[in-house]
Design a protein that fits this description.
The structure holds two protein chains of two kinds.
Chain A (H helix, E strand, L loop, with lengths): L4 H10 L9 H15 L34 H5 L5 E2 L2 E2 L7
Antiparallel strand pairs in A: 1-2
Chain B lengths: L5 H9 L5 H19 L2 E4 L1 H17 L9 E5 L26 H8 L3 E6 L33 H8 L5 E5 L6 H7 L2 E4 L20 E5 L2 H11 L29 E5 L9 H16 L3 E5 L7 H16 L18 H12 L2 H14 L5 H21 L5 E5 L15 H5 L6 H6 L3 E9 L2 E8 L5 H13 L17
Parallel strand pairs in B: 2-3, 7-8, 7-9
Antiparallel strand pairs in B: 1-3, 4-6, 5-6, 5-10, 9-11, 10-11
Helix pairs in contact in B: 2-3, 5-6, 7-15, 9-11, 9-12
Classes of the chains: A mainly alpha, B alpha/beta.
């Protein structure tokens, strides 16, 4: 199926990925090719077929609601790009 | 020392024929002299390896050695290693030094293995040629104009070039088996959930599985013994009991029924590769196995199914890379939106971006049923094909890849052509089955692999078949001429 460049721009915005103006044409073409290949699925009769999310049809296990983790804030924040007073810093969100 | 299998190294260390420090030094020297031609390592952990080897020698002397004490191995750079950079082949994680170890790393450490370093890979394990790495492509030790396969291309090349006796890999759609085939080594993707995924950077969570890569099936069994088992910290890890995967290696093949799917021997298969696979199957038949023609009628749907499910799961998993908590961050973001979009635009390579976009599309409002749900339904049909075959046969066999390794650059501009490389391996991940690639000869001096596919949790039988084949063949012992020199 053909996919328009503005639709790729919308998807890239949803995925929070900046794509340069010089690349958007090629990205659109490649994704059109991939989706064209994927379109074979539409011809398959899947009525009454249960979707498979896990190849062993396993379901999520539950565990006791007990604290098992220790607080390692310093170790985790030591690898962050910007922290201050135990907080992760990002550009100002609210004026 | 570098010519020995893991089993031989364990015996040699215990018999004091060499020390772990000597052994580790030998492999580090080989990496230093030969890896500049291959680029199979992203990080070499020389100092920690030598310190661990010295400690291993002490344990060997004390009589307190564990199963793998003193044996050097390499780990794919997808497994988090505390204090050692874990890049996943991506600029996004170029500066990422994990604050914890993956469960798999912990297990190898506890059993005494020595980490030589972290191997190169396609970025976030997305690729079939190892050309998608931020750290540059890996080259095939048999011919450096060729790709080693991917995504575990660094692990495969390092083992094939005798830079490490064994390595870990991960396989989401063929990423252990395809590079094992291209590099002439033995690789096993276990059943989904057999090996913990904790600390293994996630690509497609319902498909990802870690496994061993080595020269022999026996070594893969020894490594699987170390890796397999339930991990309470990975909710998808299987509680199914493990077994000693070496216990059945010596079983004879009399009465074994091997299914040959007609779809795996059709037009897409290179004729010379097909001849090598046929010859290997005839040897298995001579060893007592019965060859049975079977059918996997939905085989032609595995590529489209995989290329919905894997990108959809990847787009979700990779949303965690936001430039806030760890990893790459763009410089001087003007606002939060700019921080996210520029960080991700810079940090991810082209193939990773493509898959995130395809996955985002497949999951977006209005398309979910047509793509993602549809693919999940076809996934079940693909698994049911295998289950029907396993009513008639014990294992399924065929080629690992449509042909031998291709040249660098040959397919890198055509994603869909690259995806076809995994036509025989993807279905195994979709169905969650164990699969192996076993060296089965050469086509124009390029290795080819025989693929063996088993029922869920039947790794021991696959390893048995591969081991028996390796008793009557020596393809797995061949070594690339250019790599047999260097420090010995």
């Amino acid at each position: 199926m053909a996919i328009e460049q503005d639709e790729i721009e919308k998807i890239a915005e949803l995925a929070r990925i900046r794509i340069g103006d010089d690349q958007i044409g090629q990205v659109t073409q490649r994704i059109t090719e991939i989706l064209g290949m994927v379109d074979q699925l539409q011809a398959v009769d899947t009525s009454d077929v249960e979707p498979m999310a896990n190849p062993l049809d396993a379901t999520q296990r539950l565990r006791a609601d007990a604290v098992t983790e220790v607080n390692r804030r310093e170790a985790f924040q030591a690898i962050a790009p910007a922290v201050e007073n135990g907080l992760y810093l990002v550009p100002k969100v609210i004026d | 020392m570098h010519n020995k299998s893991v089993a031989q190294l364990i015996a040699g260390l215990r018999a004091k024929h060499f020390s772990s420090v000597e052994l580790t030094r030998c492999f580090l020297d080989r990496i230093g002299s030969l890896d500049p031609q291959l680029n199979s390592f992203i990080s070499v952990t020389e100092d920690t390896a030598l310190a661990a080897a010295a400690a291993a020698d002490q344990r060997l002397a004390d009589g307190t050695a564990a199963e793998l004490t003193g044996v050097p191995i390499a780990h794919k750079d997808i497994f988090c290693t505390q204090g050692i950079r874990t890049s996943c082949g991506s600029r996004m994680l170029d500066n990422f030094v994990p604050p914890y170890d993956a469960t798999l790393i912990k297990r190898f450490d506890e059993l005494g293995a020595i980490t030589l370093g972290k191997t190169n890979m396609d970025e976030f394990a997305m690729g079939s040629s190892n050309e998608n790495s931020y750290y540059g492509p890996v080259r095939n030790p048999w011919n450096t104009d060729l790709v080693p396969g991917g995504s575990s291309g660094g692990s495969a090349a390092a083992v094939a070039a005798l830079l490490a006796p064994a390595a870990t890999g991960t396989d989401t759609g063929g990423s252990i088996r395809q590079p094992a085939a291209f590099c002439g080594i033995t690789g096993l993707k276990p059943t989904y959930g057999r090996v913990s995924r904790l600390g293994m950077v996630a690509f497609a969570s319902s498909l990802d599985q870690a496994g061993p890569m080595a020269h022999t099936a026996e070594d893969c069994a020894l490594l699987l013994n170390a890796m397999a088992g339930h991990d309470p910290l990975d909710s998808t890890s299987s509680p199914e009991p493990t077994q000693d995967y070496t216990a059945q290696l010596d079983n004879k093949l009399d009465g074994l029924r091997i299914g040959l799917p007609s779809e795996y021997f059709g037009d897409g298969l290179d004729a010379a590769t097909g001849e090598r696979i046929d010859a290997a199957l005839q040897q298995l038949e001579a060893q007592g196995a019965t060859l049975v023609e079977v059918s996997l009628p939905n085989s032609q749907l595995t590529i489209p199914t995989y290329y919905v499910i894997a990108p959809a799961e990847a787009s979700t998993n990779l949303s965690r890379f936001d430039g806030v908590r760890y990893g790459h961050r763009c410089t001087d973001p003007v606002d939060l939106h700019d921080l996210y979009t520029r960080t991700r635009g810079e940090g991810f390579g082209d193939e990773v971006k493509r898959r995130i976009l395809v996955g985002t599309y497949a999951l977006s409002a209005g398309y979910y049923d047509a793509y993602y749900k549809k693919a999940q339904q076809v996934r079940r049909l693909i698994q049911q094909d295998f289950m029907r075959c396993f009513e008639q046969v014990d294992v399924i066999a065929g080629p690992t890849t449509p042909g031998p390794a291709f040249s660098l650059g040959a397919k890198s501009d055509d994603p869909v052509a690259m995806y076809l490389e995994d036509v025989y391996t993807l279905a195994v991940n979709l169905a969650g089955l164990p699969g192996m690639s076993v060296p089965a000869g050469f086509v124009d001096d390029k290795p080819v692999g025989l693929q063996l596919i088993g029922q869920h949790f039947d790794e021991a039988r696959l390893l048995n078949v591969a081991h028996q084949y390796q008793q009557v063949s020596d393809w797995h012992l061949r070594q690339p001429a250019a790599m047999t020199g260097g420090a010995a």
